[in-house]
Design a protein that fits this description.
By secondary structure, the protein is of the alpha/beta class. It is built from eleven helices and ten strands. It has a single domain, classed as Aldolase class I (TIM Barrel, Alpha-Beta Barrel). The termini are far apart. The structure holds ligand PBG.
């Protein structure tokens, strides 16, 4: 048999041919920027484990949102860093707390030009660092936590969030939050469920960024990385409970999970390219070991190839600048 010369290389010859033949495109519309807002600071504080990322004041939060709007980035995900924590994480539902104020400032600044999402969890606000309240035996109490999540959702919606994003991996959290929102007249507020969220070493830099005091781990509520089929159950349940969009996390170690989920779900599917994934690229790039911007683009593009609609990523601003 004669083999056709250049059968596969023919369409790779020029940049224009490659553009024409590309199966996947990454656009600014695919990016959501996580933003940290910290209480009681007058200047932004760099997160040392995440070069280029800062904890914002409410003033710099507004400025950052404006830069993102100007670049065409469609969404942000807000995380709060409170000055005080307690056993219950009560700062999470305090309208005068850092998230309530941050969301209100953002809404005031950007109107409807940006989708304002709020991470919905207790770990930034609890003194023990777990994502829920603790039972007397020290385990995370699922149902007692759901009641608190409902309060957090209502506060975030009232402060101006378009989307609330529960990340605590409690069973039934989406149903509890939907019911709480609807009961208070926030039926237009959407839920992006962190549906398949694995217990991962890649969240390390984030825990510095929000000053989480966790001793121990989250293996009793986040998913075991050995399991893929279980992610399908998680996602189906969340959609049945009312999730409008679902997210997988971390990103690069879940490409198989994303590819499995894509034909299963009709709602928008997202990936969270997490802190450790960001910091690994930044650290290697600082040493000159990898081309950082190229690596970032490659990560985000293959997530699109695997099937996501959008990516929550600390590279959002940098990549948006490169794409425009
Ligand atoms: C929980 C939450 C975490 C992240 C997002 N939401 C931390 C955790 O589960 O320990 C991690 C994000 C990242 O690593 O970038 N509030």
């Amino acid at each position: 048999m004669t083999f056709p010369a250049q059968r596969l290389r023919r369409l790779r010859r020029t940049s224009a041919l490659r553009r024409l033949a590309a199966e996947t495109t990454l656009s600014v519309d695919d990016l959501v920027a996580p933003l940290f807002v910290r209480e009681d600071i007058s200047q932004p504080v760099p997160v040392t484990s995440m070069p280029g990322v800062v904890q914002h004041t409410t003033r710099t939060l507004r400025a950052e949102a404006c830069r993102l709007v100007a670049l065409g980035v469609p969404g942000v995900m807000v995380f709060g860093v409170p000055a005080h924590k307690d056993a219950e994480g009560s700062g999470a539902w305090d309208p005068a707390g850092v998230v309530g104020r941050g969301l209100a400032e953002l809404r005031d600044e950007v109107g409807d030009e940006l989708v304002v999402m709020a991470d919905l969890c207790l770990d930034e606000f609890t003194d023990h660092g777990h994502c829920g309240v603790l039972a007397s035996d020290g385990t995370v109490d699922n149902d007692a936590t759901l009641e608190r999540y409902g309060r957090v959702a209502v506060m975030q919606a009232a402060a101006g969030a378009d989307v609330v994003a529960p990340s605590g991996m409690m069973d039934g959290q989406v149903a509890a939050i939907r019911a709480a929102l609807d009961a208070e007249g926030f039926s237009q507020v959407a839920i992006l469920a962190y549906a398949a969220k694995y217990a991962s070493a890649a969240y390390g830099p984030f825990r510095h960024a929000v000053a989480v005091n966790l001793t121990g781990d989250r293996h009793a509520y986040q998913q075991d990385p050995r399991n893929r089929r279980e992610a399908v159950d998680e996602v189906r349940l969340d959609i049945a409970e009312g999730a409008d969009m679902v997210m997988v996390k971390p990103a690069m170690t879940s490409l198989d999970v994303i590819a499995t989920l894509r034909p299963e779900v009709n709602v928008p599917l997202a990936a969270y390219h997490v802190s450790g994934e960001y910091s690994m690229i930044k650290a290697a790039a600082e040493r000159g070991w990898v081309d950082g911007p190229a690596m970032a683009l490659e990560h985000l593009t293959v997530l699109k190839r695997a099937g996501v609609n959008f990516v929550v990523t600390y590279f959002a601003l940098e990549v948006a600048e490169a794409l425009t």
